[in-house]
Amino acid sequence: MSLIKHSESLTSNSLRQRFRTVRDFTMQLCEPLTPEDCCLQAAPFASPTRWHLAHTSWFFETFLLKSSPGYRVFDPHYEVLFNSYYNTIGEQFPRPRRGLLSRPSLTEVYAYRRHIDEAVAQALNAGRIEENPQLANIIEWGIQHEQQHQELILTDIKYLFWQNPLLPAYRESSVPLLASPAVRSRSTPPAPLWQDFSEGLREIGHAGQGFAYDNESPRHRVFLEAFQLASRPVTSGEFLDFIDDDGYRRPELWLSDGWNFINAEKLTQPLYWFHRDGQWQEFTLAGPRPLKLDAPVCHISYYEADACSRWAGARLPTEAEWEVAAANAPIAGAFVDTLLPNNLPVHPRACHAHVRVVMQDDRDGKAPREPLGAPHLNHVDLNAEPFLGNIWQWTASAYLPYPGYQPPAGALGEYNGKFMSGQMVLRGGSCATPSTHIRPSYRNFFPPDARWQFSGLRLAR
User: Fold this and answer.
1) Burial of 274 (0-12, 13-18, 19+ CB in 10 A)
2) What distances in angstroms separate CA 373 from CA 249, 254, 367, one per listed residue?
């Protein structure tokens, strides 16, 4: 079976341009980093930047270049050192110990990348793509794979810098994260509006336009009960009200595993939040900043997202509900490839101005604010707030195969399918995601306790 699906043919010229653009952007992401930054591993779930640089090159070497006539392997040891989890390929160096590899040096890894770049360019120039379209699929898969690791470079570096008492900035920005002082009502957070969706049969999954991973297929029908989806994600200010209302100390709001998790880890707020001089601060890729109350809350686990939704009198959407709502959403949110070139912080942008809720019996036009998730809210066009980008949004759906799913043959069949256990689905992309990497059918997945990604929530009911 084909690895990926496209509505248009892939040519050497189009792939050459995309390959070069993505590989160059990876190097651009590394420009603010020192060699020491690139070598450290902050946790078993994260990886050193140097490893990401090598692994994305290993991917092209393993799945594309080794089958090329006359290709010379850069270093045979790299097959083990930079294999992530492909048991079909062979042995892997243990993931929790990647930070112990002082060799190869960063200079050698950069040389490895140049070697791969030249070899892929030669394959494209030799016309092998036109001769074997399956090779075009592999190159496109490798490009998309590298974009995933671009996001991981940023999230892993942020977590690494968080361990440093200096709280260093990955990249300073001339644009402040907080343009003006935030004002918050501690007990009555401004409510979002809601979009109504009627019950009925819907279709979800990749529709055949452009690139898609195997886990987005096959497209299939689902029956949905009538539901509502909030017009925007939950903000940091609203999540702060959840905290102030003893959200982390009320067991009735939490799943059993979640309650055990937050107590074992002694969690009382999202990752990267802290107090300084009597004020809430958050650590960002631009260093410590005052907490931006009108931006979506992020760096929370599935457990925290679920508990907050219960506190709000709502729930998390299923991934089918989310995709139906986002089916026609434009790629218009905050993405890393639009933020960095404009010297903007890689951080969630503020939501649109809080909308005032008008009750049907509000004759003088001065309705009071209602609690988060309150009933009787007006209809709103979800396109008013970008649906994609900014933050990954937890859903209530376990990461499982779609009906009729079949993984690709060979080692690439390990890419997605074998992780369909013990993970939850996230949708939408984040400020660290490249804009050319996301689409409404994209299924991201992480364990329910993961917090180091830019993950937040949007309410449903």
Assistant:
1) middle
2) 21, 18, 16
Q: With contact defined as beta carbons under 8 Å apart, do 41 and 48 qualify?
A: yes
Task: Name the nearest CA neighbour of 142 among 9, 19, 7.
Answer: 19
- Is residue 83 one of the residues assigned to a domain? yes
pLDDT of 383 above 70: no
Angle at 162 between CA 160 and CA 164, to 5 degrees: 85
Q: Please tell me the distance from the alpha carbon of residue 313 to that of residue 373, in angstroms, as a whole number.
A: 6
Residues 366 and 220 in one domain: yes
**Segments forming the whole domain that contains residue 399:** 194-456
Residue 5 lies in a domain: no
Would 180 be classed as within a structural domain? Answer: no
Report the length, in residues, of the chain: 461
337 and 394 in a single domain? The answer is yes
Assess whether 233 and 131 both reside in one domain: no
Contact of 391 with 346, CB cutoff 8 Å: no
Least confident range of 40-44, 182-186, 432-436, 451-455: 182-186
Q: How far apart (Å, rounded) are the C-alpha atoms in residues 83 and 79?
A: 6
155 and 254 in a single domain? The answer is: no
Q: Residues 6 or more apart from 83 whose CB is under 8 A from it?
A: 58, 62, 89, 90, 91, 92, 93
Q: Which residues contact 344 (CB under 8 A, 6 or more apart)?
A: 173, 175, 334, 338
Backbone dihedral region of 390: left (phi > 0), alpha (psi from -120 to 50 degrees) or beta? Answer: left
Do 264 and 388 have their domain in common?
yes
Segment 399-432, tens digit of pLDDT:
999 999 999 888 888 899 999 999 999 999 999 9
Residues 157 and 210 in one domain: no
And the tokens for 74? Answer: 């850069």
CA distances from 22 to 26, 96, 428 (A): 6, 27, 20
289 three-class SS: strand
Instruction: Answer yes or no: do 236 and 119 share one domain.
Output: no
Predicted model pTM: 0.89
Q: Is 376 left (phi over 0), alpha (psi -120 to 50) or beta?
A: left
Q: Is 275 helix (H, G, I), strand (E, B) or coil?
A: strand
* Percent of the chain whose pLDDT exceeds 90: 74
Amino acid occupying residue 62: T
